[in-house]
Amino acid sequence: MKAKKAIALVISVLSALALFAPATQAAGPFFPKATEFFPVANAPREFRPLLTELFLVGRGITNGNVFNDSVLVLHKGELIYERHAGGWDKDKPHQMYSVTKSVLSALVGIAIADGKLKGVDQKVVSILKNITVAPGQESKRDITIEHLLTQTSGLPGDSDDEANAVAWWDAKDSGKAAFELPQMASPGERFAYSSGPGMQCLAALITKAVGENLFSYAKRKLFKPLGMDSVLWDAAADGVNYGGFGFSMSPRDMLRLGYLYLNEGNWNGKQIIPTKYIEASKPKPLLDETYGYAFWNSFDNGRYPDAYHASGSFGNFIFIMPGEDTIIVRTGSAGPATRTVSRGMGSSKIVEAIFMGLVYPLVPLKGVPLEYFIANL
């Protein structure tokens, strides 16, 4: 805990130095067409690229990665900074890990506006049918969509050994199998972050509610209107896209998604996500980390109280800073040493012990099948 507070202090200092003075009122938001991108502009004098990069390195360290693969900064609708390294570029899809949750959250808002979902207070069992509720776990019937979005459903979280039970990955109905895992708490009783059961339930129920493949629905309702053409999305054995991981997109498409949230769900006059839902999605503006609808507040919010972000393992971030009219995107991935160790899995008990003891615990990926994790390093 002391180490985390020390890191938080350093990051807060860097944050205070790195970014921007309060933004002046922009003439009006610019929305690029599908075949366009944001115009390139000179950075304001307050912007310090090196300190911004260091700020993002610090955030990456807490998420299992040191090096910045890509860093992009959009300020007042203009691209003022872009840098790529390690073979990555502006258009290459990058594994997003838990940023997938934030994409899923956006689709909940769209499905509600579409009339496919009644609202965040709708109960999961009203959509996922033929659910078996074990004796003593009757409160599972009270789990709502909002409980899943806020990771307060009572289903296994990263702190629970049950989170490693990933039988849903190969199940004929991944949402049902995930929902039927042992309940650890009553709905709303505790926050327990996980990339597995709760998020897969959410992906499955949206899929059932909209009546089509989730990725197809997302392309039609979200990605195409924004001009996001780099997107990829892996799926479980039953064809339901993963809810807590498995989504990939380019750094520039990350900017587009962040810009949609910056503009309260509106894209060039069309309300893609309801403003009311966007507002509900935001974490409370506190100095300690808090969680909204799959978006994080952060401990460096002293200077930027309205900032929030989507976060994925290895330091994949979309920082949304409404007060500064700014989006900051950072991608990160496992380093060469981690990949080398992962390739040795199964060949040596020593290598396996190193991987499971040192590498795997670095990132919050319980609930993600180990095979998938290793294959995507």
Question: Can you give a write-up of this model?
Answer:
By secondary structure, the protein is of the alpha+beta class. The protein is about 35% helix and about 10% strand. The strands form three sheets. Strands 2-1-10-9-8 form a five-stranded antiparallel β-sheet, sandwiched between helices. The relative contact order is 0.17. The protein is built from twelve helices and ten strands. It has helices spanning about 1-20, 50-60, 100-115, 145-150, 175-180, 195-210, 215-225, 250-260, 275-280, 335-345, 350-360, 370-375, and strands at about 70-75, 80-85, 95, 230-235, 245-250, 265, 270, 310, 315-320, 325-330. The mean pLDDT is about 85. It folds into three domains: about 1-100 and about 210-330, DD-peptidase/beta-lactamase superfamily (Beta-lactamase); about 115-210, no CATH class; about 335-375, no CATH class. Helix 1 (about 1-20) runs antiparallel to helix 2 and helix 3 (about 100-115) packs parallel to helix 6. The longest helix is centred in the first third of the chain and has 17 residues, at about 1-20.
